[in-house]
Design brief:
By secondary structure, the protein is α+β, with helices and mostly antiparallel strands. The chain has one domain (about 5-80). The chain contains one helix and six strands, in the order E-E-E-E-E-E-H. Strand 5 and strand 6 form a beta hairpin. The longest helix is centred in the last third of the chain and has 13 residues, at about 70-80.
């Protein structure tokens, strides 16, 4: 699902767990902030902060922040691989 509530995911890269194949750590995210329509290109802090089980995405344009779970990234990456 590309919509997270506050952002529209455009692209994501992540490290995967060897055994399960699920996202273990998000490494980069491109998304549109739905509050100010700014393109967020996040690879490190403060734009992308890794937390247990997910990541916090931050928009420098308006200050919007949202925690996005690794499960959400798993679903997004699975859908974009098929398309």
């Amino acid at each position: 699902m590309p919509y997270t509530g506050l952002f529209l995911l455009r692209h994501a890269s992540a490290d995967s767990d060897r055994e399960s194949g699920l996202v273990s750590r998000v490494t980069a995210v491109k998304a549109t902030c739905l509050s100010c329509e700014r393109l967020v290109d996040a690879t490190d802090s403060p734009d992308l902060e890794i937390v247990t089980g997910g990541a916090i995405l931050y928009c420098r344009g308006c200050g919007t922040r949202q925690v996005i779970s690794n499960a959400h990234f798993d679903e997004f990456l699975a859908r974009t691989r098929r398309d």
